[in-house]
C-alpha cells in the first residue's frame, strides 16, 4: 500500500511516496503561467500525484529547469511578461515534453506551437479531466521513449563489448 509522507524540506513541504518501506520521490512537473489563479488550479489538479513546481514567467521557468533536471513535464502558458511561452528558444522546448496552454485561437497558436516542437496544446478554459489525461499520456510516452533509447544504447554498447572480447580472446 502506498502512503503519503510529508517532509519539511527547505521551508516547503515536499511530498514523497513510501512503497514497501522504500521512499520514492514523486515525478516533478513545472507549471509556468503569469496568472496565479491558473497556476493554483493546475497545482490542485496535479499535486496528489506529482511534485508541482511553479514559475510566473519564462525567466523563472528556465531557472527551475536548470535547478530541477528531473522535471518530467512542463505546462507552459504562451502569453507572459519577461519571456513568453515560446521562451525564445526551440532548443529549450526540446529538452522536456511541453504542453502549451493558450487562450489564443486554435489555428494561430497550434501552428506556431507544433513548429516549435511542443508535445500538445491545450486551450483555455480547460477541462481538468482532459488536461490530466493528456499530461499522463505524454509523461508515459516520453518515459517509454526514454526507456527504448536507453535499451538501444545498452544493446549497442553490449554488442561492441562482445565483439571486442571475441576479437581479443577469440570465440
Number of continuous helical runs: 5
* First-residue to last-residue Cα separation: 49 Å
pLDDT averaged over residues:
75
> What order do the helices and strands follow?
EEEEHEHEHEHEH
The major pleated sheet works out as: 5 strands, parallel
Strand order within the widest beta sheet? 5-4-6-7-8
* Helical content (DSSP H or I, runs of 4+): 40-55%
Task: Report the sheet-strand fraction.
Answer: 25-35%
Structural class: alpha/beta
Based on CA inertia axes, which overall geometry fits?
elongated
Radius of gyration: 20 Å
Low-pLDDT windows of residues: 1-16
What is the total tally of β strands? 8
How do the strands and helices of this protein lay out in sequence?
Blueprint: E1 2-9, E2 12-19, E3 22-25, E4 28-32, H1 36-46, E5 51-55, H2 58-67, E6 71-77, H3 90-95, E7 98-102, H4 106-115, E8 120-123, H5 128-169
Parallel strand pairs: 4-5, 4-6, 6-7, 7-8
Antiparallel strand pairs: 1-2, 2-3
Amino acid at each position: 500500500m502506498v502512503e503519503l509522507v510529508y517532509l519539511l524540506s527547505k521551508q516547503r513541504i515536499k511530498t514523497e511516496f513510501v512503497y514497501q518501506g522504500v521512499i520514492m520521490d514523486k515525478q516533478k512537473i513545472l507549471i509556468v503561467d503569469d496568472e496565479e489563479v491558473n497556476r493554483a488550479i493546475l497545482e490542485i489538479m496535479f499535486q496528489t500525484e506529482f511534485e508541482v513546481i511553479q514559475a510566473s514567467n519564462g525567466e523563472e521557468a528556465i531557472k527551475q529547469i536548470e535547478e530541477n533536471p528531473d522535471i518530467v513535464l512542463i505546462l507552459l502558458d504562451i502569453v507572459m511578461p519577461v519571456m513568453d511561452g515560446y521562451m525564445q528558444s526551440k532548443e529549450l522546448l526540446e529538452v522536456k515534453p511541453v504542453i502549451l496552454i493558450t487562450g489564443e485561437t486554435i489555428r494561430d497558436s497550434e501552428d506556431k506551437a507544433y513548429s516549435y516542437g511542443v508535445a500538445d496544446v491545450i486551450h483555455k478554459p480547460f477541462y481538468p479531466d482532459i488536461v490530466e489525461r493528456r499530461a499522463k499520456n505524454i509523461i508515459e510516452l516520453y518515459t517509454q521513449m526514454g526507456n527504448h533509447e536507453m535499451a538501444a544504447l545498452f544493446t549497442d554498447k553490449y554488442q561492441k563489448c562482445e565483439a571486442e572480447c571475441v576479437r581479443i580472446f577469440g570465440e
